Amino acid sequence: MRDILPSDTARWRRLNGVFADVVGSAGYGQIITPLLEDLGVFSRIGDATDVVTKEMYDFHDKGDRHVSLRPEMTASVCRSFAQHRPVVPWKVWYTGSNFRYEKPQRGRFRQFDQVGVEVLGVDDAHLDVEVIALAWEFYSRLGLTQVKLILNSLGEPEDRAAYVEALRSHFEAAELSEQSRATLARNPLRVLDSKREHDAAAIAAAPGIADFHSPDAAAHFATVQAGLRRLEIPFVVEPKLVRGLDYYRRTIFEFQGGTLDSAQNALGGGGRYDGLVEALGGPPTSGIGFALGVDRTLLACDDEGVFGSDAAPLDTFVVDVVGGAEAVAITSELRSVGLTCDRGYDGRSMKAQMKLANRSGALIAVIVGDDELTDATVTIRPMSRDGGDQRTVPRTELITTLRQLLDNEATPT
Ligand code: HAM
């Protein structure tokens, strides 16, 4: 787990703003669910998944309830749906931290953030297209151009079950690593995720899911692909994409970064699921959604040199060399009219305060010395070379003068 420092948080906020704009424009409302839930909410993700068996931050609270920090938000959203029974379609988006006890490395943390959406109560394949297109639009607004969309369909639950059995027979007869043999006993689908060299040949020869699709599932998948083509969103169908969580059926997808190490190159993923709402006490309800890893998305932005961390500069920095009380009044007045400003403290010298003004990146220094105090004036000094000359103006004209200068700064010549 790590700290996100002020040098980075502005970028996080902007990223959340871009996401909120994209999903807000499609009618999604924000949901905030608790960080901590009953363990039972998350065990529904699937008892054959690492997220549930190995990575949960669970404990008994003081009332002896078995609870866990959330490892993801889809299960929480379904719990919330089952509890509040909103009208469908229910379209929600979220942002926040999740916790998984994983081995930390670049792009993999024990506390990480996701932004995501879930839609409950719609079976229409066109919704799958809408949901994928929202994530695509988000990446494109960040400026990312190397993201790859990988798509597959796990079919109906019966198709998936038949496929799992076919995989089991295939892998039982194949040459596999010891770890994958253990995985095979628990969940043959997960063997397809193995990155071990020893398993590569068996995985390459394994059957693909497409042969097991029922006509309905095949038609649904064809509609999704046609919709994506219509929107000119490029994608690759990967028949061996299975994803790490057990609740999926029909459409699943993953967004991969062009530059991160292969183990951490999943920038985000999602798909259709059912059974979750029911398992959490609600009526049978189909769902679809995705979650995008904020930490990995920002790493991908760094690697592609887009969506930089440049924070907006301060408008002004107040330099008060007559005791500091004038700065209290001036900063308060400037902030109340919407200008951003900071100041020096501790009665430091003019030189020291000008150094601070420089370091703050402010566009204009507002200076009060003995003369200004006596004459009820202020000295205004643009900090950039082409910001114009220093001038002294009556205190009453401070705000109009600043506004004019700042307008000039904002207008390129
Ligand atoms: P997930 O694939 O487990 O899916 O996680 C989605 C994304 O969260 C990953 O692609 C990755 O970017 C990020 N992520 C996951 N674990 C870590 C970690 N330890 N450190 C950094 N980033 C991480 C889900 O969570 C599903 N709830 C997605 C979904 C929503 N499916 C349907 N609706």
Question: What does the model show?
Answer:
The protein is α+β, with helices and mostly antiparallel strands and 413 residues long. Helices cover 40% and strands 21% of the residues. The longest helix is centred in the first third of the chain and has 19 residues, at 6-24. It is elongated. The two termini are 46 Å apart. It binds histidyl-adenosine monophosphate (HAM). Histidyl-adenosine monophosphate is lined by residues 72, 74, 100, 102, 108-109, 112, 114, 116, 118, 244-245, 266-271, 273, 289-291, 293, 295-296.
Question: Measured on Cα atoms, how large is the radius of gyration?
Answer: 28 Å
Low-confidence stretches: none
Structural class: alpha+beta
Largest sheet: 8 strands, mixed
Order of strands in the sheet with most strands: 1-5-6-11-10-9-7-8
Number of helical segments with 4 or more residues: 16
Instruction: Bin the strand percentage.
Output: 15-25%
- What is the CA-CA span between the terminal residues? 46 Å
Give the SSE map.
Layout: H1 6-24, E1 29-30, E2 36-38, H2 39-43, H3 50-53, E3 58-60, E4 66-69, H4 74-84, E5 90-99, E6 111-120, H5 125-142, E7 148-153, H6 157-172, H7 178-186, H8 188-191, H9 197-204, H10 215-230, E8 236-237, E9 248-256, E10 266-273, H11 276-279, E11 287-293, H12 294-304, E12 316-320, H13 325-336, E13 341-343, H14 350-360, E14 364-368, H15 370-375, E15 377-382, E16 391-394, H16 398-410
Parallel strand pairs: 1-5, 7-8, 12-13, 12-14
Antiparallel strand pairs: 2-4, 3-4, 5-6, 6-11, 7-9, 9-10, 10-11, 14-15, 15-16
Helix pairs in contact: 1-5, 5-10
